[in-house]
């Protein structure tokens, strides 16, 4: 089985999660950052995994655009969808639902909330102000959910 993990990441957390996931998956796995290649061809892959982070309640625009262009093709793949974000529980679930269309969520073999990070050291001035005001965070915080990544990989490997 050939798998492609496609992601978009601003401060590197979704990329980190994608790398952790890659280690857990069976078969040949490649990673593509949408920043480098905005519409990668999917024909050579049986399995496609899509991952994004959330900023101010919205998914990264490159992911939105990729879904728009490839939704039909994604419906023919062994599919996985994940999100990196700092909200947890119901709020995180809601963000997942607004990120990925219902049709894809229902077709997907694994849907995952992988936690997130506030990488203050990589943020610009405005982002630092927002994170300080909204979350009271002034230094790097990591809450990547490794168990959730393992659970997600097991489902896709099954
Ligand atoms: C300015 C800013 C806004 C954010 N807004 C949200 C949000 O609305 N909901 C949420 O769950 N996480 C939010 N986050 C947390 C990011 O989703 C989290 O930092 C994520 O790990 C970023 O991943 P990336 O480095 O791959 O882009 C925000 C972070 C920043 C810096």
UniProtKB/TrEMBL annotation:
Q: Which InterPro entries match?
A: Flavodoxin/NO_synth, Flavodoxin_CS, Flavodoxin_dom, Flavoprotein-like_sf, Protoporphyrinogen_IX_DH
Domain Flavodoxin-like span(s) in chain numbering: 3-158
Q: Which Pfam families match?
A: Flavodoxin_5 (PF12724)
**Which PROSITE patterns does this chain map to?**
FLAVODOXIN, FLAVODOXIN_LIKE
**Which domain of life does the protein's organism represent?**
Bacteria
Q: What is this protein called?
A: Flavodoxin domain-containing protein
């Amino acid at each position: 089985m050939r798998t492609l993990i496609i992601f978009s990441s601003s401060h590197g957390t979704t990329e980190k999660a994608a790398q952790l996931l890659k280690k857990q998956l069976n078969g040949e796995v490649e990673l593509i950052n949408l920043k480098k290649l905005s519409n990668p061809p999917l024909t050579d892959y049986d399995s496609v995994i899509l991952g994004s982070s959330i900023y101010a309640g919205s998914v990264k625009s490159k992911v939105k655009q990729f879904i728009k262009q490839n939704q039909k093709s994604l419906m023919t793949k062994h599919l996985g969808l994940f999100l990196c974000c700092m909200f947890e529980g119901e709020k995180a679930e809601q963000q997942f639902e607004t990120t990925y269309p219902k049709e894809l969520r229902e077709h997907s073999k694994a849907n995952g909330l992988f936690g997130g990070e506030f990488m203050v050291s990589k943020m610009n001035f405005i982002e630092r102000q927002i994170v300080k005001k909204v979350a009271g965070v002034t230094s790097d915080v990591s809450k990547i959910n490794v168990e959730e990544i393992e659970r997600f990989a097991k489902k896709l490997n099954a």
